[in-house]
């Protein structure tokens, strides 16, 4: 059961904000972290997520996703600050319009956990923050394009926005008659389930929109009873739950690990959706895998899973009008 004695904001503030704090908690040598990497991209790890890590294990698959290391400082010409060229698809602050029929709002620049492979680790959130008044301009843009039927809330993590902001924004969007789907891309139910409180559930329950929540879980170890509980609550208020994972060297680059993830997600009421090849963002090259290795892992995964549990292997390419299917 979740502890409801403190607000989710206070619980979030209790998390680890430095690599040294995290390593001390996990009884690991400070030497495996790197403060220079942390200056480029800060550390942020909720306590509950850290408790799912194995103490004394420097190769723990959850730790490796959040551990600032010297590998992030390696220069690589193929890895860029804006690997998806999102700046070119931002017609108005806070809004990305790349794909037909849907737009994406970068609702906040804050995450509960800073994943070291994040493709937006260099994203200029301050320059793209529309402010509360700016959402009127966003809604006007959407209302003038009848082809847009879906709004995607992203970030950062959109579920770290306040209930007041979420309510105001959703109410404005509901006034646009050609919108029918609200999609939320979030890691919150996985890494910080305390945020899924009665207030947020009420907001989701009472909207007229079809609600799709795309989770981000890379390894079965991320899933525990607290996660199962909030996923059930999200289903109870009418949310469809999907998952996208990123294929990461040293973490989940194994067909049996990925098959176990798909089966466990399904047991939790979540359908596997995408398996992403790593976006080539500066600082994350050590997570990448050669394409022939990616293909081999996926073909093995095809042999282990029924079709409905097989996530689609994709990558995202700048300028393309959809995800690129790799197999």
Automatic annotation (TrEMBL):
Cofactor annotation: [4Fe-4S] cluster; pyridoxal 5'-phosphate
Membrane spanning stretches: none
Cross-referenced Pfam families: Fer4_12
Modification type N6-(pyridoxal phosphate)lysine: residues: 323
Domain named Radical SAM core: residues: 97-312
Keywords on record: 4Fe-4S, Iron, Iron-sulfur, Isomerase, Metal-binding, Pyridoxal phosphate, S-adenosyl-L-methionine
GO molecular function term, any single one: 4 iron, 4 sulfur cluster binding
Presence of keyword Iron: yes
Catalytic activity: L-lysine = D-beta-lysine
PROSITE patterns: RADICAL_SAM
InterPro entries: Aldolase_TIM (IPR013785), EpmB (IPR022462), Lys_aminomutase/Glu_NH3_mut (IPR003739), rSAM (IPR007197), rSAM_sf (IPR058240)
Alphabetized CDD domains for the sequence: Radical_SAM
Chain positions recorded as [4Fe-4S] cluster binding sites: 111, 115, 118
PANTHER family xref list: L-LYSINE 2,3-AMINOMUTASE (PTHR30538:SF1), LYSINE 2,3-AMINOMUTASE-RELATED (PTHR30538)
Family per similarity comment: Belongs to the radical SAM superfamily. KamA family.
Protein's name in the database: L-lysine 2,3-aminomutase
Organism whose genome encodes this protein: Fluoribacter dumoffii
């Amino acid at each position: 059961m979740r502890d409801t004695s403190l607000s989710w904001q206070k619980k979030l503030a209790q998390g680890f904000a430095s690599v040294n704090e995290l390593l001390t908690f996990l009884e690991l040598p400070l030497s495996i972290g790197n403060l220079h990497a942390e200056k480029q991209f800060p550390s942020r790890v909720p306590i509950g997520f850290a408790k799912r890590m194995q103490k004394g294990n420097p190769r723990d698959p959850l730790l490796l996703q959040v551990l600032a290391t010297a590998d992030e400082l390696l220069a690589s010409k193929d890895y860029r600050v804006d690997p998806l060229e999102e700046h070119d698809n931002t017609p108005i602050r806070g809004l990305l319009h790349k794909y037909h029929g849907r737009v994406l709002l970068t609702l906040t620049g804050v995450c509960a956990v800073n994943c070291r492979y994040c493709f937006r680790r260099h994203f200029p959130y301050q320059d793209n923050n529309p402010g509360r008044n700016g959402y009127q301009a966003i809604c006007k843009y959407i209302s003038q394009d009848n082809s847009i039927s879906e709004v995607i809330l992203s970030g950062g993590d959109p579920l770290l926005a306040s209930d007041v902001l979420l309510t105001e924004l959703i109410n404005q969007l509901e006034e646009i008659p050609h919108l029918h789907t609200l999609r939320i891309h979030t890691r919150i139910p996985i890494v910080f389930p305390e945020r899924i409180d009665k207030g947020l559930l009420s907001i989701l329950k009472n909207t007229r929109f079809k609600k799709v929540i795309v989770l981000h879980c890379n390894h079965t170890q991320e899933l525990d009873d607290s996660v199962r509980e909030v996923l059930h609550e999200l289903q109870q208020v009418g949310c469809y739950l999907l998952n996208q994972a990123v294929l990461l060297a040293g973490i989940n680059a194994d067909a049996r690990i990925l098959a176990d993830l798909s089966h466990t997600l399904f047991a939790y009421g979540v359908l596997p959706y995408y398996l992403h090849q790593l976006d080539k963002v500066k600082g994350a090259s050590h997570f990448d895998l050669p394409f022939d290795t990616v293909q081999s892992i996926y073909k093995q995964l095809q042999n282990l899973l029924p079709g409905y549990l097989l996530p689609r292997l994709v990558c995202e390419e700048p300028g393309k009008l959809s995800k690129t299917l790799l197999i």
